[in-house]
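Hi there,

I know you've been waiting on this one. I reran it after we fixed the sequence typo, so this is the corrected version. Both the input and the resulting structure follow.
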Amino acid sequence: MASCRLTKIVPNYSPFRRGVFDLISFARFLFVILSLLAASLLPAAEQTSVDSTTAAADELKALRDQTIIQSRVWLDTEWDQFKHGAEEARWTLGGLWGWHVSDRQDWAVRLKVPFVYDRSDQASGHVDIGGLGDVEIATGTAFRLSNKWRTGGSIELHADTASNPALGDSVWRLHPSWSVAHDVTNWLTLTPTAEYNHSIAEEHNVAAQRYLELSLPASFILPYDWSIGTNYKAKIDFENGDRWTHTINLGVAKRLSNIPVVLSATLEKQLDGGNKKFQANLTMTYYFERFHPAEMTNWEGVSRSHRPRVQCSGVQAVDLVRYED
């Protein structure tokens, strides 16, 4: 008697691919957590303020301007496309906590934790690797020089924490930077920035890194809490014969109307060829906003009738002002 056997066909998922799916699920989980956090704080965000338009504009500018310090958390998804089929995806969870030092100075600390998926080029057999990337921690300060001028700087430590050498730079690197920002108009801000990178320890026979980056970020504030951002960056590699490379960046961002969340997308392209074809980023940023009595803030020139007020049960109405840490 003839017999037959049914065979269940199961996709051949490698352990790494399952790990990649886990990373994607983790990124989605973080996105949901941040969304729920924003929704839970919705009533506070809906309180009136004397200048909500300015607050939204500052949150849009802060994406490219380190002289505006505002406490926030963000989830960034980056995709890098290289020649010969290589590609890299990066999910970065970041947080910045800032506080006032004085009426004209703020201070902040920042942490970035990346999870990386790397797929090698065709010559290497398209090997898939995933895991933790290089963690970065930084501290910085900013000064308000006038209504239209600001300056600030930071120093960042790039740590060699990658779970696999292919997922990081295999170096410990110091990264100081300094910026000067000028609000040319209410809708245009320029922030010339200088950044210096110098490796202090190298692993796995990686060459030392020492280069300078000069950039000119610009933020164009549009109606309805939209913005367009551009950036030109020149890099001078002192460990590679003082070689110059040039990069341009274009992005668009939207600040949601009811909650202090900014959604942004950017596209970056190197103008000198190079191994990378392009880089694309999608980012969700949640800003923490607080309200404090007006006497704690300089309200010179603003009449009391135009200051925001809140009425609490059994308590006399008091002036409030919103500021971002």
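Quick highlight: The chain has one domain: 15-324.

Best,
R. S.
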